[in-house]
Specification:
Length: about 150
């Protein structure tokens, strides 16, 4: 479970890293195609991440964790939903508008979005270290894990 969480975070961070030069130096301007493909890829990554983290981390902790862990998972789940919706709104806006032509507006918005994504990853990783993450169910006693009796 923890490895899968780290994998998802790694994929998101790797995609963010591709845009770092443009975020560090607002004088650099990527192509519209570069921006569009990275936003699209991030949208897909966030959808996959959200499905994973809700189903396999937040929901099991909320359902069966101790009250403190459950409250933390609820808070993190709400933040994850808000983050994903914010990204989708960001994505929709910049599909309709030319980010390169409006770089002076796009750049600070992109920096804020990247910072929010990075902050979320740090907070979820910290939560994962603090709470008892759900473990996959063990096979029933006397059964072969490959389904052979």
């Amino acid at each position: 479970m923890l490895q899968r969480l780290q994998d998802h975070h790694g994929w998101i961070l790797a995609l963010l890293k591709e845009g770092e030069p443009f975020l560090r130096d607002p004088q650099l301007r990527p192509s519209a195609a570069f921006l569009a493909t990275r936003r699209s890829a991030m949208g897909r990554l966030l959808t996959s991440y959200q499905q994973f983290i809700h189903r396999e981390v937040f929901d099991p902790i909320i359902a069966g964790g101790d009250p403190r862990d459950a409250a933390l998972a609820r808070t993190m789940k709400i933040d994850c939903i808000e983050l994903t919706e914010s990204f989708r709104a960001f994505q929709r806006r910049w599909i309709a508008e030319d980010a390169v032509e409006r770089w002076s507006e796009y750049h600070p918005a992109a920096v804020r979005m990247v910072e929010r994504l990075q902050r979320h990853i740090v907070e979820v990783a910290a939560m994962a270290r603090e709470v008892s993450l759900p473990q996959p169910a063990a096979p029933a006693t006397g059964t072969d894990p490959q389904g052979e009796a």
